[in-house]
Fold this sequence. Notes:
Number of domains: 1
Mean pLDDT: 88
Number of strands: 0
Distance between the termini: 21 Å
Helix content: over 70%
Radius of gyration: 19 Å
Strand content: under 5%
Low-confidence stretches: none
Order of helices and strands: HHHHHHHHHHHH
Amino acid sequence: MNALLAATILGEWSTIAMWLVGSISIVLVVIGAIFVSKPDQKNAASVKVSSKSILYLALSTVGFMIYFVLPNFLAKIGYVPAEVKQAGNGLNYMTAIVGPQAFGQFIGSILIVLFVFHEGKTMVEKSTWKNMGTGIVWALGNIFMFISAANPAVGQTIATTLSQLNVVVGTLGGIYLLNEKKSSMQMKAIIIGTVLILIGAMLIGNIHSFA
């Protein structure tokens, strides 16, 4: 959705060929992710998706779309001056946005923990502080994604789509580093999904050659 929003609202895809290749690449990445996350056949019957889960997923998708596309959209409509947007080849503007966003996310997460989940005590436990390492890793990835989106040679559609390679890294890391057990059927699905995601990533990574 982030890639499609950037292609439509930001106008990053300017030709029919770019739209065709970009759409195919996104479809491949999505299908690949479905294969990679395929549950074991023995547990498939017990896996149920509630309507509340779908609602939360939809809300998070919309929120992430706005959060990631809004900076470039504000520059596109002229709310942010062109000289500000173009300073440092776009790098200054995009990285400067991360600070206020991080502050808002920090305050927002505390409010949610305290007043929605009522888990104030859990927030200060030792295990929670240890888990902040994962947040730091995510923050670094987030900064680099914003930097990539700021680069005119890359753009937001490529940056957001390539970021989904984390599905491959996370899955294979879980198997070979955390020793997660997968059935032979799941491994076949993971291999197929990984190949589809990589093909989709390579296609969209070269989308500017179709301009």
